[in-house]
From TrEMBL:
SUPFAM superfamilies: beta-lactamase/transpeptidase-like. This is Beta-lactamase family protein. Pfam families: Beta-lactamase (PF00144). InterPro entries: Beta-lactam-related (IPR001466), Beta-lactam/transpept-like (IPR012338), Diverse_Enzym_Activities (IPR050789). It comes from the Bacteria. The lineage of its organism: Bacteria, Pseudomonadati, Bacteroidota, Flavobacteriia, Flavobacteriales. Residues 69-324 form the Beta-lactamase-related domain.
Amino acid sequence: MKKFFNLILLIFISSCSSNEDNEVISDTLYFPPTNTNTWETKSISSLGWNQSQVQPLFDYLELKNTKGFIILHHGKIVMEEYFNGHTANDTWQWNSAGKTLTASIIGIAQQENLLNINTKVSQYLGTGWTSEPLLKENLITSRHLLTMTSGINDESELIITPNLTYLADAGTRWSYHNVFQKLMDVVATSSGQTFENYFNVKLKNKIGMDGFWNNGVIYKIYHSNTRSMARFGLLALNKGKWSNEQIINQTYFNESISTSQNINPSYGYLWWLNGKSNFMLPGSQTSFTGSIVPNAPAEMYAAMGAADQRIYVVPSKKLVIVRMGEASNPANPSFAVSGFDTELWEKINAVIN
């Protein structure tokens, strides 16, 4: 009986070891320190990935105007590469991928009872924040802004009151629109401080991000180095929890990465969702059949911004993949989803599968 027990124990211990460096692979995630720039790594060979396909991936990324690229597995860096003169310390804009930062802050403010996403926006910003009839304006909640279903006219991306006119009742039309930035004003008003200050205290500093908000042409855009984008991706992989601290309420985060309305099932709370039956694109009212990235894992959720800024999160594989840079196709830059994603995932799959 003792020999049998020892045999079982030996088999168990062997099964917990990786094939090369005896690293124990478990569901436990690694979180880098918030006060230093150190970050643990793991080798491609320890994961059994295809080393011969790494250079073709890097060649593609460089060809497509990439500046920074990172793959995390269980929180540890497996790949980190910089291109076209960019360095690990250089900052770059997130563009609309930063909308997910805003969604996260809304969740934090709600869990602190500063706001409720189902309450009309005019309760926080006052009436007249749009140019809609008051009856229609009062239909718009923060949740409508989170889900791109405010019904506000989307002819202009410049968010000034005269441009915020009525097109449809809130909740009846999905349209990718920069009016989401009014959520920043909701946070500022409800917290009694600037949005940037609230963001820094409640999120940025807690996970060790660098970066800053800069007033872009049409809305505030976050800038950071590539590792900071990866830090936020790691927080998203762990459903809003950083190490032992639940920074974003998990119930709210799960809502964020679930279909938020029945018009565009591939959209959550400012997150893009893969693996749904159909999707809509910015600037269009057409519904396309299939997933936004057909060759990526169906469970993937993603932060996507203009010029192909990306954070891909794949829970079952414990992967976070970050791409920063200029537009992959400068002649036809995308606002969010683009054919670049399918091409990039073809190269990623060749490495990880």
